[in-house]
C-alpha cells in the first residue's frame, strides 16, 4: 500500500452519461426494478462494467459516519469451522470496541463463491476487508485496494502486496514430525488438505523438512493429500493402516482431517497403537483416550492482529504492507507419545 492517491470510484451520474440515459434509469437498473427495457438495461450494465461502477447499498449510512459505513467484511473458508469461528470472534471483539459491525461470510474454498460474497460486501461499501483468500486470481482484491479499500489477508499469504497475518505453519509441521521421530517412529504418514491451499502446502513442506532433519526417509506411499472432509480423511487413514506395512505414526495437518483420522484409528482399535499429532486443536481434545497431541495456532491472536492492522489502515496508515507470523505451540497430551511398539 503506497502513499499515492487512490483512483476515484465511478458515480451513478457518470454511468448515466456514458449510457446516454437518465440517473433515474441507472438507479432502476442497479436496484433491479421493473420499468426499464432490456436494451436500456444492457446499455446501463455495460457502462457500469466499463467504469468499474459498483452500486452503494449502504449510502444511507454514509452521511452519519463521515463517508464510512462502520462495517467491515470478513471472508472465511467456513464460519462453522472451529478455527474460523475463534478467528471471527477475535475480529468481532476488536471491531466492537470501535462501534463497527462485522459481516462474516463463507467462501467454501470456491473461487466463484468468493467473488460473489466479495462483490456483495463491497456493494455495501464496507470500510475494509479481512479475507482468507481462495485460489490464485486476486485481481478483484488488488483493484479494490487500489481504489482505497484496506484489505488484510488472514491465515494464508499469496505473493501479493497486501497485508497478511498467518501462523508459522511450516515450523509447526516440522516440530510435529520431529516429535514423532523422537519417540522412535520411522514410518510417519502425512494427511493433508487440498494442495492448492497455501497453509496445506506450507505444512507439507514442514513435514518434508522434519523428515529430512531427523533422517527419516520420505515414503510417497505414506502421503495422502487433497483430503477436504472428515470422511475423506477417515477413508485415507483406513487405507494406510490396513496396508501390509502400515505407518506407526500419523501427522494430520488440519483439524477436520484429524477428526477423520481419529474415527478410523478408533474404529480399527488402534488408539493406543498408532501415534498421532494433529495440526490445530479440537474441542475437548484433552478428553480423548489418549488425549490428542496437537500443534496449536492461536486464532484469537491471528484475528486480533489482522483487525488491528485493518483498522490502522482505515485510520490512514500508509506504511508498506506487512506480514505478521504468529508462533505455534506443541501440546503433548498422549497420542503423540505412543512408541512404535504401541508402548
From TrEMBL:
Keywords, alphabetical: DNA-binding, Transcription, Transcription regulation
SMART domains per record: HTH_LACI
Gene Ontology molecular-function annotations: DNA-binding transcription factor activity; transcription cis-regulatory region binding
InterPro entries: HTH_LacI, LacI/GalR-like_sensor, Lambda_DNA-bd_dom_sf, Peripla_BP_I
Family matches, as PROSITE patterns: HTH_LACI_1, HTH_LACI_2
Magnesium among keywords: no
Ranges where the HTH lacI-type domain occurs: 10-64
Short name of any one Pfam family annotated for the protein: Peripla_BP_3
Name of this chain's protein: LacI family transcriptional regulator
